[in-house]
Specification:
The protein is α/β, with parallel strands linked by helices and about 450 residues long. Helix content is about 35%, strand content about 25%. The strands form six sheets. The chain has a five-stranded parallel sheet, with helices on one face. Strand 14 and strand 15 form a beta hairpin. It binds flavin-adenine dinucleotide and nicotinamide-adenine-dinucleotide (NAD). Its EC number is 1.8.1.7.
Length: about 450
């Protein structure tokens, strides 16, 4: 006979864990299915190992800055294997804490995949049947490759974290978050990086700051080939080559990274058995309450058509659990004004509308305030390292609808300003706030 729960969660990544923990806290009897490592993409092959590598890249740069400041030692290369082990140890600690937390919360964990047998029944990969009136799909996504000749000669972001050495010459195909982040951090660590861009970089970010970032990347030694369509990959002896429609064969490279987006893990769930709808890309279609078209079945995180960000998956899962089991019938995620950072070098942060979006929505009621400077940390050593800030407002009372920062510290700077924007920040509130001096962030309250 099928074992019965209040809630079954498919997937133990950011969204699934958040949903399961919150539901269990409200007293629900929860089953969680996760065939891989607890923590999913973010912890194992996403945000966490990526950010660790980004920190390493920052330290590499600061070694040179330290020499410029007058420190004696010459910059050295990263011991990649030593660092890989440190990083893995840190990740193992997170996984361990999740495993302990699940046990303490009384959540029944199945280290297996699940698929639908009916709208309230899941079959595990071991053949067991589980039943619940509420099921949450949080199965995330996986990296996409192009179906072109030689595509499998290229690796995806998951593979980078398993590398035993830093690739000396790497080509990155794509121009979104992953492409820009890996291009920046690998370059900072000493790889020769070539970026193959089909159209434009980071199209959802403010174009003026993206242009400044692109210039910075070029100045830092990253080769960027724009407006090219990759048509194939091939080997030339030991080397990898990329074929594109403009330049023919490009290379040689030691490694090629596909960074052209991700696809949802919805195709192996037997969704038809439950009647759950997906869109043309395979994303599970949900309403504002994370509900699918089938009663009692919900979806959160990357498997849906929502922004693919860990805090989005977590917030959606928690609010859903609060609604289903916590007596909060109005609890749902507001998807407006989600802040986000590309951990580029330097980082690029956004909350709210870009200037172009603001002009589209608000026409000539838009005002734009800019600041451009070199942060003191770099200026002291006589180095150029531009920071660009932009505050976009609308209307006579200048309601702030967008804040954009490119520069050192942007990743830590924007969170607090995102709170203010969400609360209805006006330009005069910035002016009424006393600056913290000397800092880069002060320029956001002093901006003209
Ligand atoms: C390289 C990289 C860097 C990133 N950096 C950032 C960042 O800096 N900041 C940020 O906010 N976001 C970042 N992201 C995005 C972030 O990782 C995802 O948005 C987040 O992990 C999505 O969580 P999720 O729970 O929807 O899916 P996942 O974390 O992918 O979890 C889904 C889980 O479901 C499991 N699963 C799959 N099929 C089944 C099944 N049939 N049954 C049971 N379980 C199943 C999988 O094994 C997986 O563990 C990054 C992503 C990548 C790839
Ligand atoms: N810092 C962060 O928060 C962070 C970091 C990494 C990833 N992520 C999340 O993970 C998601 C996936 O990252 P991603 O960078 O793979 O996807 P993305 O959607 O950010 O970017 C995909 C890029 O690939 C390009 N592309 C698509 N098809 C192509 C083709 N045929 N040839 C060449 N280029 C092509 C697109 O133009 C785009 O520039 C992101 O959307 C983001 O939500 C977030």
């Amino acid at each position: 006979m099928a074992e019965t729960f209040d809630l079954i969660v498919l997937g133990g990544g950011s969204g699934g864990l958040a949903t399961a923990f919150r539901a269990a806290r409200h007293g629900a009897r929860v089953a969680l299915l996760e065939p891989g490592a607890l923590g999913g993409t973010c912890v194992n092959v996403g945000c966490v190992p990526k950010k660790a590598l980004w920190f390493a890249g920052q330290l590499a740069q600061e070694q040179q800055l330290a020499v410029d400041y007058g420190f004696a030692s010459a910059p050295g290369a990263l011991d990649w294997e030593h660092f890989r082990q440190l990083r893995q140890h840190y990740i193992d600690g997170i996984r361990h804490r999740y495993a302990m937390g699940l046990e303490e919360s009384g959540i029944q964990v199945y280290p297996e995949t699940g698929r639908f047998v009916s709208a309230n029944t899941i079959a595990t990969s071991c053949g067991e049947e589980l039943r619940a009136p509420q099921i949450v799909i949080a199965t995330g996504g996986r990296p996409r490759r192009l179906d072109i000749p030689g595509f499998d000669l290229g690796m995806v972001s998951d593979d980078i974290f398993a590398l035993r050495t830093l690739p000396k010459r790497i080509a990155v195909i794509g121009a979104g978050y992953i492409a820009i982040e890996f291009a920046g951090l690998l370059n900072a660590l000493g790889s020769e990086v070539t970026l193959h861009v089909r159209h434009r970089m980071l199209t959802s970010f403010d174009a003026e700051l993206v242009d400044a970032l692109e210039q910075h990347m070029c100045d830092a030694g990253i080769r960027i080939t724009n407006q090219v369509k990759v048509t194939g990959l091939h080997r030339d002896g030991e080397n990898l080559m990329i074929d594109d429609d403009v330049n023919g064969p490009c290379g040689p490279y030691d490694a090629v990274l596909w960074a052209i987006g991700r696809e949802p893990n919805s195709d192996r769930l037997d969704l038809d058995a439950a009647g759950v709808n997906v869109d043309e890309d395979g994303h599970i279609v949900t309403d504002a309450w994370q509900a699918t078209n089938v009663e009692g079945i919900f979806a959160v995180g990357d498997v849906t058509e929502r922004p693919e960000l860990t805090p989005v998956a977590v917030a959606a899962g928690r609010r859903l659990a609060d609604r289903l089991f916590g007596g909060k019938p109005d609890s749902r995620l507001d998807y407006d004004n989600i802040p986000s950072v590309v951990f580029a070098e330097p980082p690029l942060a956004i909350v709210g509308l870009t200037e172009a979006q603001a002009r589209e929505f608000h026409g000539d009621r838009v005002h734009v305030h800019r600041a451009k400077f070199t942060p003191m940390k770099w200026a002291v050593a006589g180095r150029k390292h531009p920071t660009l800030m932009k505050v976009v407002t609308e209307g006579d009372d200048e309601r702030v609808v967008g804040i954009h920062v490119l520069g050192t510290g942007a990743d830590e700077m924007l969170q607090g300003f995102a709170v203010a924007l969400k609360m209805g920040l006006r330009k005069r509130d910035l002016e009424d706030t006393i600056a913290i001096h000397p800092s880069s962030a002060e320029e956001l309250v002093l901006i003209n």
